[in-house]
Amino acid sequence: MTDDMALHRVERLTWDFVAARIAGGGPAILPIGAAAKEHGFHLPMNTDRVQAEWLAGALARQLDGLIWPTLAYGYYPAFTAYAGSCSLSEATFEAVVQDVTAGLIGFGCRTIFVLDTGISTLAPVGRVLARLHHRNVLHLRVHDGPAYRRAAEVLSEQGHGSHADELETSIMLALAPHLVDMSRAEASPTRVPADGPLTPTDASSLNYSRSGSYGDPTLASIEKGNILLAAMVDDLIDQATAFMATLSTSGVVAPHVGQQRSASQ
């Protein structure tokens, strides 16, 4: 995202400007995306954060929303055997998400979107939002939308995958090709994984992956990434606008939604 996003990012604004935007009904967006989590030999450890912040920007442009700083540490227990990959405990992660989200509710944000790029984070975030019992908060799961799932099913050539794989690498090629080193992309062994974390050292384990990828990133392409990313953005905007429409009909005033979806892409 270019500097035209400055007016959407809380960290770039003064508190009184944030207060005015909240009073005006702009939705709050809380991205969740790891910044210290291995993504194979070919992708940087902030891969999730790159995606979370880009997607949050796309949503904010469309909805005239405010983006809070990304939660860059989370619950990622599957990757801690790889140097630098940090994971909070479930309880700590849930406490952080709950405190930040409750703060947004306390500020008077009329609509809150928790934009989650993780897999292991989905259940903890879901539990937090259930405990808050606040009808104006929606958990946006970036891989769960129907358009994205259809595109992934059509495009995927790999036999297995879910992490630093063909699909995620394609998305990163579309978003930030300068951060991707395809010469170092390495497929993981074709095995059915067992419960527990991935391992870079135990070749006898069903969870062995020397690089840390799970899937075949060598099959990635920017063309696939553009299709997947467009589908993901369409899903997020459709879910968000439908949610706000529901709030509006139930008596909550929804913020203005931009007319040109292409502005977010």
Short description:
The chain is built from 7 helices and 4 strands; from the N terminus they run αβαβαβαβααα.
Output the keywords.
265 residues; 7 helices; single chain; disordered C terminus; 6% strand; alpha/beta
Question: What does this entry look like structurally?
Answer:
The protein is α/β, with parallel strands linked by helices and 265 residues long. Helices cover 39% and strands 6% of the residues. The chain contains seven helices and four strands; from the N terminus they run αβαβαβαβααα. Strands 2-1-3-4 form a four-stranded parallel β-sheet, with helices on both faces. Helix 6 (166-175) packs across helix 7. It starts with 14 loop residues before the first helix and ends in a 16-residue tail after the last helix. Mean pLDDT is 92; it is low at 254-265.
Number of strands: 4
Number of discrete helical segments: 7
Order of helices and strands: HEHEHEHEHHH
Q: Based on helices, strands and strand pairing, what is the structural class?
A: alpha/beta
Give the strand content. 5-15%
From the N-terminal CA to the C-terminal CA, the straight-line distance is 10 Å
Helix content: 25-40%
Name the overall outline: globular
Unreliable residue runs: 254-265
Q: For the largest sheet, list the strands in their spatial order.
A: 2-1-3-4
The major sheet is characterized as: 4 strands, parallel
Q: Name the average pLDDT.
A: 92
What Rg do the Cα atoms give? 19 Å
